[in-house]
Design goal:
heterotrimer; A alpha/beta (279); B alpha+beta (85); C alpha/beta (503); A: 279 residues; alpha/beta; TIM Barrel; 2 domains; seven-stranded parallel sheet; two-stranded antiparallel sheet; 11 helices; 9 strands; 13% strand; B: 85 residues; alpha+beta; 2 helices; 41% helix
Chain lengths: 279, 85, 503
């Protein structure tokens, strides 16, 4: 959502997205960065009830003059995650330090997560390290800027981003964090969007960014947990409850040990399924 | 004389101008004036109070902005006014 | 003034609204149909029309609005009234659009003193709201208008009707001609019951095999260069909304209708031509296609979206009182199952009407209150900006009436404790769907039961009001004038509410 657009902000919570990204970067003119920061923070402050989705703010890159004001203004208990453009290992480490300082100064009750945007060729090379950094709880592929850095044409089919997609899907899967595919920019091509979602889902992406609220239902249709996964997660939940009652720390299901990553995965599926009213 | 302006005349937004003045003066025009001018004025007064401003004139041209937008535009206008020092 | 059953102030000299099915206790009243004739006489000009028909002070002239914002006929007649300095004229156009601005001057001068219409928008509506009209202003429904004409409650001296194509016997059709507008449904009562009937056309042909208006009632034909501007008559195509909030409302509505179990073989439906209404049709269509469901009919103002559905075999028939776009006009020509019908057949409570057979209708609202009363007549200041059209007719007729609207538009909650003006009584409104929740009328215990396990966000209408106020704040109460400028007449001829003067 463009950060300086009140008409869009006021309905941003109704679209059944897992997360909404409030943008301070490309969707906000350089002369309106101050205006957008204040609007987003006042909007988030005004809400009496918790939002039904994760709140993400995309700040300006650490190579700009705006990011420090962005962070000082918007970081609060009302947001969950900061999205960092043109992220690299070193900028993510720097961002972690700044966030730690602000969290302490503002006495935040939570730890803010970070979603790096992979939109530089060098970031693709660094991906295996990026996913291990503190706070990083998901990764977004930014194919428009990446293809320009690669000096290749951006196509609907997306052969030019096949390798980065594979790298991100694997790296995120390895560290059990969200892999978020690049937005499908043609808002009038619902069939193309669906095909794109199916493909990235098949190579392991867990989610996709929408460039328009009208894309959300199609994306959800592909990425909602399957019936099979929901049933599995429900069984994990039931087994965990039983183990808890018996005072067991670890337990097994179908002959396999259920450890923390497995529990986390099951919980994630169930949370999503409940969000979508599937159970 | 210092002044600052923020916001737009798009639907659901408001354009707010703040300038130094001898006393407090608030002028509101709004597409929902009959139904919300008191509420808009309250938001402006509260915000000025929080910012410790008493001698300013505020001109608000509202296109259906909710309270937080009015407050955000006013705060931005105030901060832009200060920037002109 | 006295109070009607909705506790609205209504005048003593009209029958007050009792209930939406009170018509069942009344008998249909029919005046004699007008005299027929076997030949028509041709007129030279509008001036000639006024001379030959001896149009004098105080007469009632009627018009239809099928040429909508492109209509030239109504304006030309207004010009002639002005040229002749006529006074105290009564006009009965089925709707008034922004292009009828020339009427303002006639109202202010007293040339026109009384107006009967189903819908008014633009400068004329504003002028009436300001109290400029000296006589009576009644706002009927599309089904109520034929009823008051056939019963003689409104007596038309001369019906002056733009007809896109007329043959030498005086038969008329809207399907062809350079000013084609499709169905001429709202003109049929005028043709049958006015004392004299004039067809104004820009396309005179030898004979018509297929015609909607019967030449035996036509007394005069006036041939002019153009009866309207095609650009204002119909839009090229009517498209579904791209607004994400509207689409979300439409998706929820289609899902809800599905959970009610009404999307099944034989389903009949009507939606408005607005973007959100059409989007509901789109999502319903998807469900029908997925499951191979065949509907029986769709009715109302027809758009290309419905003619596509007809051609794809999703409906057996279309009943069309008015075409909204060019595609619909073309379909009236090529599809034999696309029927044009009269306003009476469409929605007259005393006729064997189509709206009574509807499974569901999707309608909009300018305001809706916690009693489910809907206002589409005035804005929240009380200024006239619309009218029932077929709103209250279809709401009564359809088994399920769904109102789709944004909960909030530009800081204004659309939901109120009490609407400014009642157009459609809450007893006929079953469901409200907004982007922040759905409310079902407590009277519909059957519907509530059907969705008791639904995952859709179904809440009480009071809760929706609360949600709206949490976001916008509570609107200030405004002082309203007590001076009446007109009345909202329900489809059975009773007064459901009063329209008050604004500054």
């Amino acid at each position: 959502m463009p950060g300086n657009n009140p008409a869009m902000l006021q309905n941003s919570d109704i679209f059944e997205a897992d997360a909404v990204i409030y943008d301070l970067e490309d969707a906000v003119a350089v002369t309106q960065k101050d205006s957008a920061r204040i609007l987003i923070s006042q909007f988030l402050k005004s809400s009496k009830k918790p939002f039904p989705m994760e709140i993400v703010v995309r700040i300006n890159g650490l190579d700009t003059d705006y990011y420090m004001d962005d962070l000082n203004m918007v970081v609060s208990d009302k947001i969950d995650t900061i999205m960092l453009p043109k992220a690299r290992v070193e900028t993510l480490i720097e961002l972690d330090k700044i966030l730690s300082r602000i969290e302490e100064e503002k006495h935040l009750t939570k730890k803010i997560g970070v979603i790096p945007i992979i939109e530089l060729a060098i970031s693709v090379l660094e991906i295996n390290q990026i996913v291990t950094l503190p706070r990083v709880n998901g990764v977004l592929l930014g194919a428009e800027d990446l293809s320009s850095d690669l000096e290749v044409a951006r196509t609907k089919k997306g052969d030019e981003i096949l390798h980065p997609r594979m790298c991100i899907a694997v790296a995120c899967a390895a560290y059990k964090i969200d892999s978020i595919d690049t937005p499908f920019t043609d808002t009038n091509d619902d069939i193309g969007l669906k095909e794109d979602c199916r493909f990235v889902s098949s190579i392991g992406f867990t989610s996709k960014a929408a460039i328009h609220p009208n894309q959300v239902p199609t994306i959800n249709e592909i990425f909602v947990p399957s019936r099979k996964n929901i049933e599995w997660a429900l069984r994990v939940e039931a087994a965990a409850k039983l183990a808890d009652e018996k005072g067991l720390g670890v337990f097994s299901l179908d002959g396999k040990m259920v450890d923390k990553p497995v529990m986390d995965r099951a919980n994630k599926i169930l949370k999503k399924a409940r969000n979508y009213n599937l159970i | 004389m210092k002044r600052g302006t923020a916001g737009t005349l798009e639907s659901n937004d408001a354009m707010i101008m703040v300038k130094e003045s001898d006393g407090l003066k608030i002028t509101i025009t709004s597409i929902v004036y009959d139904f919300f001018h008191e509420q808009i004025e309250n938001v402006i007064r509260e915000t000025l109070k929080e910012e410790g401003l008493t001698n300013v004139e505020v001109i608000c041209n509202d296109k259906g902005a909710l309270d937080y937008t009015i407050k955000a535009r006013l705060l931005t206008a105030i901060s832009r006014m200060e920037e002109e020092k | 003034m006295m109070k009607n059953s909705l506790m609205r102030n209504v005048p003593e000299n009209y029958n007050p609204y009792v209930s939406s099915d009170d018509y069942k206790s009344k008998k249909r009243v029919l005046i004699d149909k007008k005299a027929t004739n076997s030949t028509v006489e041709y007129l030279e000009s509008y001036s000639d029309l006024f001379d030959k028909l001896n149009i004098t002070d105080g007469m009632t002239l009627s018009f239809h609005h099928h040429l909508r914002n492109g209509d030239f006929v109504f304006n030309a007649v207004c010009q002639e009234i002005k040229n002749r300095g006529l006074k105290n004229m009564k006009l009965a156009p089925s709707s008034i659009f922004p292009n009828n601005q020339c009427l303002v001057e006639l109202i202010e001068s007293g040339a026109v003193t009384d107006i009967y219409t189903d819908y008014a928008n633009g400068p004329v509506a504003e002028c009436i709201s300001k109290g400029k009209l000296k006589g009576e202003f009644l706002m009927h429904t599309h089904g109520g208008r034929p009823m008051v004409i056939e019963s003689g409650a409104i007596k038309i001296d001369v019906a002056i009707l733009g007809v896109p194509t007329v043959d030498k016997k005086g038969n008329g059709t809207g399907k062809i001609g350079k000013s084609a507008c499709g169905s001429l449904g709202y003109a049929e009562s005028d043709v049958t019951y006015a004392k004299k009937v004039v067809f104004v056309t820009d396309n005179l042909v030898d004979t018509l095999d297929d015609y909607q208006l019967d030449g035996k009632y036509c007394d005069y034909v006036l041939k002019v260069d153009a009866i309207g501007d095609p650009n204002g008559i119909v839009s090229g195509t009517t498209k579904i909304t791209k607004d994400p909030v509207g689409l979300k409302i439409a998706r929820m509505t289609a899902k809800l209708l599905d959970e009610f179990g009404v999307i099944k073989d034989g389903v009949s439906m009507q939606t408005g031509a607005g973007g959100t209404s059409l989007a509901v049709a789109h999502y319903v269509k998807n469900i029908m296609q997925e499951r191979g469901i065949k509907g029986s009919f769709a009715s109302g103002g027809i758009t290309g979206y419905f003619t596509d559905m007809l051609e794809e075999g999703l409906f057996e028939e279309l009943y069309d009182v008015q075409c909204f776009d060019l595609k619909a006009v073309q379909s009236t020509l090529k599809n034999t199952t696309h029927h044009v019908m009269s306003g009476s057949r469409y929605a007259n409570c005393f006729d064997d009407n189509v709206v009574d057979k509807l499974d569901f209708v999707i309608l909009g609202a300018t305001e809706i209150d916690t009693s489910f009363n809907v206002n589409v007549t005035t804005d929240s200041h009380g200024k006239i900006m619309g009218g029932s059209g077929g709103h209250s007719d279809t709401a009564h007729g359809a088994n399920i009436t769904v109102i789709t609207t944004n909960l909030i538009k530009s800081h204004m909650p659309i939901i109120k404790e009490s609407v400014t003006t009642v157009t459609t009584p809450g007893a006929d409104v079953d469901v409200l769907v907004t982007e922040r929740g759905i409310a079902i009328n407590p009277l519909r215990t059957d519907l509530i039961e059907k969705v008791k396990d639904s995952k859709l966000p179904i809440v009480t209408i009071e809760k929706l009001l609360e949600t709206a106020h949490e976001i916008t704040g509570v609107p200030q109460k405004i002082e309203r004038s007590k001076e009446a400028v007109g009345y909202v007449v329900y489809r059975d001829g009773t007064v459901i509410d009063t329209i008050y003067k604004i500054d």
